[in-house]
Design brief:
The protein is mostly helical. The chain contains three helices and no strands.
Length: 76
């Protein structure tokens, strides 16, 4: 069975280490955002009046999704 081992020189590569440790959370958050936000608007429509309203709502939902998945982008 193949085995992969990632090695980091800490603390110099702490950011890279954090990215690797949080990759699963990031993938999950992106999948949820794609399916539960973007796809829903595309499939069921929306009531946005302006592009500014659209961007504001999408940005808000993006950050809600990031926070709900326990991702701290400051650590990456």
């Amino acid at each position: 069975m193949p085995i992969a081992i990632l090695k980091y020189n800490l603390p110099e590569e702490q950011a890279e280490f954090n990215q690797a440790c949080n990759a699963g959370k990031l993938v999950g958050a992106l999948w949820n955002f794609s399916q539960n936000t973007l796809r829903q608007y595309r499939k069921h429509g929306h009531e946005f009046k302006t592009i500014e309203d659209t961007i504001e709502k999408i940005e808000s939902e993006f950050w809600d999704n990031v926070n709900e998945n326990g991702i701290d982008l400051d650590l990456l």
